[in-house]
Amino acid sequence: MKFRYAMVCSSNQNRSMEAHSLLKRHGFDVSSYGTGAHVKLPGPSLREPNVYDFGTPYKQMFDDLRRKDPELYKRNGILPMLKRNSGVKLAPQRWQDNAADGSFSVVFTFEEKVFDMVLEDLHNRDHVLLKSVLVINLEVKDNHEEAAVGGQLTLELCQKIEAVESWEDSIDEIITAFEAKHRRKLVYSISFY
């Protein structure tokens, strides 16, 4: 693989981890992150989410929720999701706190608010490497079914990007063809490290 990829959603749980897991199985150099202040998972009601700090191991969240209400969290898909996540990496990581992970060639976000936060973070960093990074937003609803679809679409886009010599020369054509094929609008921008 020629390029390094980052998958970013709000809590580094569902959308970014679905794409991370799928790309990893296909041999991509991929990492994943969240941009939120905390990791939030659905709770017994909308007003009672389960909130964890970034860096809390997925296994610890799994054990905590299984202890609280195993039927609820199995039924809503949270326990299987956490089990998948713990097979991919130890814990959710926050994008803004992981600049030391190195530079990425392509960053995918799955929500416009997250896209804006990633770009703002990149623009506020010292640009010492002067290396370009492509940031693409593929809007994906935060549910398990849409995350699976989003993961497949992300894989397809990454395969198209890998197939070219330089994404800088081909990205407009890749995006236009993808949008026409899938009838989904992408937003993208170029920033620097």
UniProtKB/TrEMBL annotation:
Gene Ontology molecular-function annotations? RNA polymerase II CTD heptapeptide repeat phosphatase activity
Chief location of this protein? nucleus
**Keywords, ordered alphabetically:** Hydrolase, mRNA processing, Nucleus, Protein phosphatase
Location of the protein in the cell: Nucleus
InterPro entries the UniProt entry points to: RNA_pol_II_suA
Q: What is its EC number?
A: 3.1.3.16
Function noted in UniProt = Protein phosphatase that catalyzes the dephosphorylation of the C-terminal domain of RNA polymerase II. Plays a role in RNA processing and termination.
Query: In which family does this protein belong, per the annotation?
Result: Belongs to the SSU72 phosphatase family.
Q: What is this protein called?
A: RNA polymerase II subunit A C-terminal domain phosphatase SSU72
Say which species the protein is native to.
Answer: Populus alba
